[in-house]
Amino acid sequence: MNSGASTFAGGVDTAFYLILGASVVILVGITAVMVYFLFKYNKKRHPKADTSITGNNKLEIIWTVIPTIIVMIMFYYGWAGFSPMRNVPKDAIAVKAVARMWSWTFEYPNGKKSDKLIVPFNKPVKLDLTSVDVIHSLYVPAFRIKEDVVPGRNNMMWFAANKLGSYDLFCAEYCGLRHSYMFTTVEVVDDAAWQEWIKTPEGESDLDKVAVGFNVIKMNGCVACHSSDGTKLVSNSFKGIWGKTHKVVTDGKERDIVVDAEYIKKSVYEPNADVVVGYNPGLMSSYKGQITEEEISQIAEYIKSLGDGEK
Ligand SMILES: [Cu+2]
What we know:
Blueprint: H1 9-40, H2 57-86, E1 93-100, E2 103-107, E3 113-114, E4 117-120, E5 124-131, E6 136-140, E7 145-149, E8 155-160, E9 165-171, E10 184-189, H3 191-199, H4 206-219, E11 245-250, E12 253-258, H5 261-269, E13 275-276, H6 293-305
Helix pairs in contact: 1-2, 4-6, 5-6
This protein binds copper (II) ion.
């Protein structure tokens, strides 16, 4: 398990490892004693059961007191990890997190909205959780936080991220067919970058454009065949192709094209016109009427953000 990226990680991990450790010791201990007794009190050696034992107060006290102590230690560390999660610092930035089938919207104090959660480094952030339909659950494993989002019962959670970077954010409550589409990220950026981002109108900062483009790709199922990390699926990955020259087959003849906004548009609307050499034509159908030209430029922004192949 990684070391976590929020101030809660230490407390949660301590409780987790303590309970895991105690469980392993008890499991191994009980199993060993069971196996030992299996041999020792085997029927061959003890053909007659000893019925003279009626009770043993000493033994009963020991097996009541020791487990009670173990459970109280577990409770102490569990409480120590959990209690700060319910005490929100007064200066926490209040963000409204709205869950719906099947996406998240995060609304910041100045009214700006985003579909990934963008937060400043080392600052407390409070999420007011609202669901407009069914039960969802907001889960950020790296921050060790998870809270149900129940319609009609507004809940909250808070955290302070103490590591810069991008972390997975899931819906952890199965909420229907496209439950997995609720996967997004938390971006922890430094304070200056966050101040800059929060002032930029929606969709204009690079962080937003990338998020919007990825959403279009996700919603239209493009990710089934095109990866974003260089993995070769049914078709080529989006990673590192921007600005690069590719060999394609056009009307049975090979030619060179450069991956730019124009090529991406043509590939979406006429996927079999210029097929990259090495891939089979006919696997993708046209998305004309399904993906708008504006959405295509958002996809282009996203592909651009994955880097150009020349570098
Ligand atoms: Cu959900």
